[in-house]
Amino acid sequence: MSLNTQVKIILVETTSPGNIGSALRAMKTMNFSKLCLVNPKHFPSDEVTALAANATDLIEKVEVVKTIDEALEDQQLVIATSSRERKVPWPNEALNIASPKIIDAATKKNKVAIMFGREDRGLTNDELQRCNLHVHIPANKDYPVLNLAMSVQVVCYQLFMDMHLQTIKENSGTWDVPTASSNHVNRLIEHFIDIAEQVEVFNKGNPRQIGARIKRLFTRIGLDEMEVNFMRGFLSAIDKNLNKK
Amino acid sequence: MSLNTQVKIILVETTSPGNIGSALRAMKTMNFSKLCLVNPKHFPSDEVTALAANATDLIEKVEVVKTIDEALEDQQLVIATSSRERKVPWPNEALNIASPKIIDAATKKNKVAIMFGREDRGLTNDELQRCNLHVHIPANKDYPVLNLAMSVQVVCYQLFMDMHLQTIKENSGTWDVPTASSNHVNRLIEHFIDIAEQVEVFNKGNPRQIGARIKRLFTRIGLDEMEVNFMRGFLSAIDKNLNKK
After folding, report:
1. B31: alpha, beta or left? (left if phi > 0; alpha if psi -120 to 50)
2. In a mutagenesis test of the B interface, which of A153, A175, A176 is the best target, namely the one with the most B β-carbons within 10 Å?
3. Is ipTM over 0.85?
4. Can you give the pTM of this predicted structure?
5. Domains of chain B
6. Distance between CA atoms of B187 and A230, rounded to whole angstroms?
């Protein structure tokens, strides 16, 4: 399933073309491509293009409309991003809590719109009341004011991440060499202790439990086979040198 | 516990002062305050101040150094942000997977540094090999290139969120009126069906199961007491008018 076709980012009356460009780049890094601008002050603009960086391909696809009604035509789940408290509280959730629900709606082929307000004063009450859910980005309560494009980046990041959680886990921490077996590591530890005894830095009666500390060190690293082999070779070479004399 | 005093953001050889200002604003929105600049091209600068917005108080606290060695003095866990694959793979984790470990280290009073590289070419191999862990932001594999300040925003957001998970859950979805009791809602439904019968839009033998649909509608909303009372008043007024004639 591609969030791409189901989720539309809407920027309402954006003043700075730089923010539009930065928002496009932010969207592309998280694999979103549908941007709708409601009554933007400057668009198109060279500044949009400059800040979009390698997301300029998305500029031609941008939908530009005059009203919220046009922007929300056919949308089935409408989300507002907002940090302000309202007199009449609306369903309001933190981004990380709302995110799985947004993905669930998109997965069920609902058209989802996520609205971002003006740089200086966000969305109006009327605009907010068009929305099914208000979402806020968890932030410093004394200064929760993220730049507009930054908010787009964080929202898209959270959605991307929740969407690809399984793939992310699988791709986290790839390694080029297989992990050494426990016995293999254990023989390395014995070898190391043997050398440590020979050079008299190790004493079995040691009250500081050097033996346990060495074992902890070598088991904790998560050594790979090549590292164990290298260390064994290193210790063997030392061994040979020590016994030459 | 304050992450503030334990986590330091390091920007290495940043070219654009705008990125430094945006990074400071991003940090402040997520309650981070320690920024260290290694050999920045322009600092201080009016552009830093302009883009820092209401985070200008952090500018005077910025640490400026010439070398990575100075930046990492006393640091106990050093994280590099990087999206590139290396010839010799380093421990590398997705941000959301690394984040709880970073918080855990900070909670245990370790000094944690998170390094961000140059705008155009990131961190050098030497710099990367100074780090305990490489972290990448999960992103579109065809274009994972976040702007520098955006990366700072996302990393700080993820840390802030994981740090305050419980509080975020508690503060999500506050409401001004208590939720209506199940019986209260049930009497509203009976009242509604009674009126629907009177105006002949409801027929108990209806094959489209209107009764179940009405019940599902009113139970699903999660009505509050004020809403139930208002609806009851509304139905009573209709009732009165119907029986006047």
Report:
1. left
2. A153
3. yes
4. 0.89
5. 3-171 (3.40.1280.10), 182-244 (1.10.8.590)
6. 77
